Amino acid sequence: MMADGNGTGHDDSASAPVFEDSLDYVTVMVGEQRLGLPIGRVQDVFMASRITPVPLAPPQIVGLLNLRGRIVTAIGMRERLGRAAAMADGAEAGGERVAVGIEHGGESFALIVDSVGEVARLDRKSFEPVPIHLDRDWARLALGIHRLDGSLLVVLDIDAVLDIDLPTAA
């Protein structure tokens, strides 16, 4: 038994959770793939409705929306990841879509995903670099992976996701 510094004769750190050894993610689904967004980058999760298309915008930018008085750029994660665009039920008719709010460079963005899961706390030791066989479009946007029960959690690099080549005016 070790002294804990306050004279009680036991070490409280053995039973206390050690959060420095974990990584926390908001999990989302795009198609059949589970993705992890570092929780420190996520501002909120909301239902996006009334997305206004932007003429001549790249396909990844599905439009603009008003979120509590702020203009937010909506980025379609299916398009950003090079997957076929598929609308959730009701989204094609102007219905609501699931969005994850992100702040970057003083601007607000909404990542449009198929669904939002839970917050996952994973051991830092299970984090692996991006596998060489991961799709190139995905590898450019990933920080690494966690192997879960029979699946991969691809951890997204938010800065890379938001680095979209915009056409410049001539």
How would you describe this structure in keywords?
170 residues, mainly beta, six-stranded mixed beta sheet, 11 strands, 7% helix, 44% strand
Name the helix and strand elements from N-terminus to C-terminus, one letter apiece. Answer: EEEEEHEEEEHEEH
Q: Unreliable segments (pLDDT under 50, ≥5 consecutive)?
A: 1-5, 10-18, 88-93
Termini gap: 73 Å
Main pleated-sheet profile: 6 strands, mixed
* Strands, total number: 11
Helical content (DSSP H or I, runs of 4+): under 10%
Which descriptor suits the 3D outline?
A: globular
Strand content: 35-45%
Mean pLDDT: 84
Question: Could you give the order of strands across the largest sheet?
Answer: 8-1-2-11-10-9
Give the radius of gyration. 20 Å
* Annotation field: number of helices: 3
What structural class do you assign from the helix and strand content? mainly beta
Characterise this structure.
The protein is 7% helix and 44% strand. By secondary structure, the chain is mainly β. The strands form two sheets. A six-stranded mixed β-sheet has the order 8-1-2-11-10-9. The longest helix is centred in the middle third of the chain and has 4 residues.
Write a brief caption for the model.
It is built from 3 helices and 11 strands; from the N terminus they run βββββαββββαββα.
